Amino acid sequence: MHTPITELLGIQYPIVQGGMMWVGRAELAAAVSNAGGLGILTALTQPTPTALADEIARCRTMTDKPFGVNLTFLPSSNPPPYADYVTAIIDSGVKIVETAGNNPKEFIARFKEAGVTIVHKCTSVRHALSAERNGVDAVSIDGFEAAGHPGEDDVPGLVLIPAAARALRIPILASGGLADGRGMAAALSLGAHGINMGTRFMLTREAPIHDRIKEAIVAGSERDTKVIFKPFRNTARVFRNAISEEIATSERVPGATFADIQPLAAGARGRAALESGDVDGGMLWAGMAIGLMDDLPTCAELIERIVAECRATLGAAARMAA
C-alpha cells in the first residue's frame, strides 16, 4: 500500500499501533513492525529515561524495521522528567515519535533538529490545526469511540475524520473504533491516510498482558466500555468492570472531586490488574471496537487480514459505485 503515511514513516502498510500505558513494550512493538505496520513503545511505561533507552535497545534486537516511541505529556503538579525522556529518545536514534496529551510545542524543535518525525494525537480539528502550525509532521485524529482520553467534544470518527481531512494539509491517521479491514477502508474513504489502533493490538498474542484480561475484553460487546471522568473534564473510555462501575457511581455524588476516586483510578492498580489477570482489579483501557473483535491473533495474522479485507471492501464499493 502507498499513502502519505507509508511514505512518511517508511512502512509497508498504513497501520500504526497506538501507544498504550503498560502495553507498549518491545514484544508488541517489534511484532507490529515486523508485520509491516509501525510498532510503538510507550515511554512512560518505563520508570526512567535510562530504562526507556534500554527498552529501545531491546526492541532493536527483535526487529530491523522502523518503530516509534509514544511520549504523552500529562497535566501534573509533579511531572515526569520529560526533557530527559526526549534526550533518551533522540540519543537512542529513534526517528519516529508519537506525542499525546498536552501540546508538545516545547520539544518539537529538539525533535526536528534530530531528524525525528512527529505524529501528534488529537481529539479535535482545532487541536490538530494547532499541532500543524507548531510543526508536527502528521496527526492521529481520535474519535469518541477510542479508548483512553477521547476529549470533551464527543465527536465520533464518521464526522471527525472528514472534518480533519478537509482542514489539514499534513497526513492523517484515523483512530478510534477501528479493528478490521472494513474500518480501514472506511477511514481511507473518509480522507485519512492510514489507521492507528490500540485496543485491537492489545488483543493479540504478542501483547504483554495476562491472557485472562485479553479473554475478558475480547468477549465484550460494543456496549461493554464505559465513559468516566466526564465531570472532571478528563473524559476517559475504559472497559466495563467493577472498578469502572464504582468510579462512575462515585463521581456522580454531589461535590465529588477527582481526589475522591483517585485510589480506584491509580495507574499502579491498573498495571497490577494487567499483569495478574484480575479483570476487576483496576481500570482497563478499551475502545468501543471491542464489539468487532472475537479472536486473539498474532500481529502478523491481524495485519494480513486487515489489509486483505480493506482491499476487498474498497473493491466491492468501487464495483457498486460503477
UniProtKB/TrEMBL annotation:
Family matches, as Pfam families: NMO
Origin superkingdom: Bacteria
UniProt-recorded Gene Ontology molecular function terms: dioxygenase activity; nitronate monooxygenase activity
InterPro entries assigned: Aldolase_TIM, NMO
This protein's UniProt keywords: Dioxygenase, Flavoprotein, FMN, Oxidoreductase
PANTHER family: 2-NITROPROPANE DIOXYGENASE, 2-NITROPROPANE DIOXYGENASE-LIKE PROTEIN
Protein name: 2-nitropropane dioxygenase
